[in-house]
## 1
Amino acid sequence: MTEPSRTLVPESIHRDECVSLLGAAALARVVISVKCLPVALPARIALIEGNFVLLASSDPAVILAAERGDVVSLQIDGLDADGLTWSVMASGIAKRATGQSPPNEIMRQAFDRGATFVLLPLSVVVGQRG
């Protein structure tokens, strides 16, 4: 006799844990609209004061979105020790960061290579595990 298949039901991740996962991440997908189509682009990230994410990107579309004050989302995902996957998405109105010094070595390297910093407030933060 075969075992019945186990169906995983995704569970929501509390905002505080989502922010913690964002704080531990160094890389994310920045999700923007380019000519009315969704685009996901890689960017280095750093959590600032638990309320903002600083993105480092050299992509002109990301920089333009920040200069226009577009709604931008970022997404990270991972795998727990027990094999469950998780995903966190944060969204807010982006703005180009001026006068922001690189908060860590990874961001400093991006800045030295010509990346522009974009500040994203954590207006909406959602996550799920499953």
## 2
Amino acid sequence: MEFCEKCGGIIKVEGDKAACASCGVKAKKRPKIEASEKINQQEKIEVIKEGSDNVYPLIAIECLKCGHKRGYFWTTQTRASDEPETKFFKCEKCKYTWRKYR
């Protein structure tokens, strides 16, 4: 952005002509307007293999379906905020999922 040397107003460009928007004095040179952007890094797209997305803690709990002794758990607020959260369990072996309310 260029400014007028006489009054400090903004230089307005119309076609090949450049003049001050405040006082109307013609600009000596046409202002240069440049825009550039450099991108150095390309975004990486990562592929998640099936089975590697399980990041839940593994605990000692007996599966209700197959009797396996270990499973994953996570908690979620399924009811009103003044009530306790629901704890979900998933069997490590058969992938059966169940829940317990507190």
## 3
Amino acid sequence: MFHGVPMISRWRWLLRQLLQKLWVVALLYTCLGIGTAFLAPAIGPFLPEGLGEKLGSGAVESVLSVLASSMLAVVTFSLGIMVSAFTAAAGAVTPRTTTLLKADRTTQRVLSTFLGSFLFSLIGIIALKAGVYSDNDRLVLFAVTILVVGIIVVAILRWIAHLTVFCLMNDSISKVETAARLALEQRMAALEGGIAGLVGAPPSDAEPVAHPEIGYLCHVDMPALQDVADQFGLRLYLAVQPGSFLHPAQPALWLLRDGTGQQTSAREDFDPCLLTDALTVSITRNFDQDPRFGLAVLTEIAERALSPAVNDPGTAIDILGRAVRLLAPWAEQRSVTLDFPRLWVPPLHVADALEDVFPPIARDGAAIFAVQIRLQKSLLALTQIAPAIFGPSAILQSAEAMARCRDQMLPSELDRLQAVSAAISQAADTGRARPI
């Protein structure tokens, strides 16, 4: 069964995007420093008299000075490493992966920890230089500083371990695969399980609503659309999917008034902006709700690996295996709960997903037998998993791949490829494939 992420509102989605920013954790450390500076004089009087002097609270200024100077150097060095890694990944993998690499949680938390501890140290030094702390007050600041030092040690160890794999080919591919899998699960579990599927055109009397911006649809706030539909008695038919290119001359959705809403008598109160505001448009495609973008980026990595300058068919073979793993759950049974009964969306077609993956690899690997045999066996695997779902599209992709490589293979290689291609057709017809 799919365990997809439920469709989230636009504000929760924006909050999640915000929490991926580098400065968020740094801001928390700054708040810790400011809070400690104000709370230390309030806590200090409750400690036993002379305890701060006995426990060496006078060393806190020296420790904070060391932290402030060292963390600034560490932050600068780490940022240099990160930028170099992003540049290397953009050249060796694809520039589209940098979005995921910049959102890497370990990198963000480590760098935020370094930057935040630097800010904490500065605030602590400023508070000490103000001369308003007693020995017990310094002890409170000293205790918090020791806690921060422990956090820094853990962050450094995590950073060292993370640098051994960060931005390498396998790490970048795995991040893209994970993003594509999450988007596909969300698309199937939420969009198809929570609303009605739209097959064919919307009703002829439906009114088109265009989005005023030009760009790619990256997020659909389904709860907000459902609320507007309930309020004004509408049935909404989404004309595009996340990842589609929008412009003012193209309908983003269609609305049909059914006269059952809470404010059906006040048609003049309805503003189409209530609908378009629920659609977030960006200048670039986004992985979150766009599974086809994840598949396309994986394919782009394989294409680059198959280029004469790189000549790395092993990566393309790896991508084909990951594509099978991503697409196979399409055949799983999913429970349907109609969470958004007034919304219809276009279905996500298997043929489109296979079109995103297999033709580019078949074209660029037309002369490489290892790639072609893996491509055919990948199509065979999908057909064996779900003949009715994958069979028709797999037969088409198999035939096109054979046509691309027919003039570039040895007769014995063509015979082996043709045997797998024939097995795909048989599996689609009978539900099982003969041994190869």
